[in-house]
Design goal:
The protein is mainly α and 162 residues long. The chain has helices at 14-21, 30-33, 36-57, 67-79, 83-94, 107-116, 125-138, 144-157; strands at residues 96-97, 100-101.
């Protein structure tokens, strides 16, 4: 993992604090709460936490052999949303050999990669990509509340403590 871990300050993103504190938690507001570019990072950060916790807690979670590589690439992209890190995500998600995608990924992780690739002005692209992450995790019997709590934990873990 990158030693320069990305964190956020509540004073710089009061809209994100508002979303985190809202009851019920509405992740759909994250993409606009941090501004378009950072909104995608906040949304993917929440999703990464949901996927990691689901992978640990849910016996039904079907892991792909390349899931950990993909999760590491997403973590690196959150820490530094550079073109190089985005290229790595795209490579994992889309590299094909003989017409087949090479990476073996669980569906929720593929959709999380796709969420990170959302264009900032993508007319709701991040919303439908992230909705697919949620729907894939919901198939394992995880409730909205469980997933929301996991998302909030992921966001709070990256919040700077003053």
């Amino acid at each position: 993992m990158n030693s320069n871990r990305w964190t956020w300050r509540p004073t710089e993103y009061p809209e994100v604090v508002e979303v985190v504190n809202s009851k019920p938690f509405d992740w759909r507001r994250l993409d606009s709460a941090g501004g378009y570019n950072k909104g995608i990072v906040f949304t993917v950060c929440a999703g990464l936490s949901m996927v990691r916790e689901a992978k640990q807690a849910c016996a039904k979670f079907e892991s792909g052999k390349d899931d950990d590589v993909a999760l590491s690439a997403i973590d690196n992209w959150i820490d530094c949303a550079s073109e190089e890190n985005l290229d790595k995500i795209q490579e994992i998600a889309y590299t094909e050999e003989n017409g087949e995608v090479v990476a073996e990924l669980s569906h929720s992780i593929w959709w999380l990669l796709r969420s990170a690739m959302a264009h900032p002005d993508g007319c709701g692209e991040i919303e439908w990509a992230f909705e697919s992450v949620y729907e894939e995790l919901e198939k394992f019997g995880l409730s909205y509340e469980w997933l929301a709590n996991s998302a909030i934990k992921g966001l709070m873990a990256r919040m700077e403590q003053s």
